[in-house]
Structures are given as structure tokens and as C-alpha cells.
Amino acid sequence: MTDPANGIYDFKQMNVIRDAHRSWCAAQSIDADSPVGRDVASLMLEAYKAGKTTQEELMEACDAYAEQRQAAVRLGSPAIDSQN
């Protein structure tokens, strides 16, 4: 029995996640096997658990996450002192 909430996926579910992962990484010119690609795969697994069960929904979840991360970056801002 499959239960994505507990990290148990069937073949069909894994294919949806895999295909979304490959498509999103290709569209972003990201190597799917790179550290960023692996982070995207983890994000998609979490999104699937949260109810995003189609390839389109998973890719939209990654787009939303990337936009959220990008909004936090302020080019030209002064450096943050990390010496405490």
C-alpha cells in the first residue's frame, strides 16, 4: 500500500515525480544529478506529500520556491557581517 505521507510511493507516483524533476531541471539548465538537482528532487517529494500530485503541480511548486528564494536576494546590498 502506498502512503506518500510516510514516504512510500508506488511506481506510477515515482514516475510522475521523476518526469517532473527531469523536466524542471532541463528547463532551468540544472543537472538533475547535481546538488541543486537533488535539492529539487527532495522539494518535489515534499510537494507530492502535500498534495501536489501532477507533473504540472510539482513543477509549479518548484517555480514558486525558486521565486521565493530569488525575492530574498538583493543584488548590490551591503555585505552582512558574519563575524559575531
Summary keywords:
0% strand, mainly alpha
What features would you describe in this structure?
This protein is mainly alpha-helical and 84 residues long. The chain has one domain (4-70). It has helices at residues 11-27, 35-49, 55-71. The longest helix has 17 residues, at 11-27. The radius of gyration is 16 Å and the shape is elongated. The mean pLDDT is 88.
The gist of it:
The protein is an all-alpha fold and 84 residues long. The chain has helices spanning 11-27, 35-49, 55-71.
Annotate the secondary structure layout.
Elements: H1 11-27, H2 35-49, H3 55-71
Pattern of helices and strands? HHH
Give me the secondary-structure category: mainly alpha
The count of helical stretches stands at: 3
Major β-sheet profile: none
Give the total of beta strands.
Answer: 0
- Beta-strand fraction estimate: under 5%
Low-confidence stretches: none
Multimeric organization: single chain
The number of distinct structural domains comes to 1
Instruction: Bin the helical content.
Output: 55-70%
Radius of gyration: 16 Å
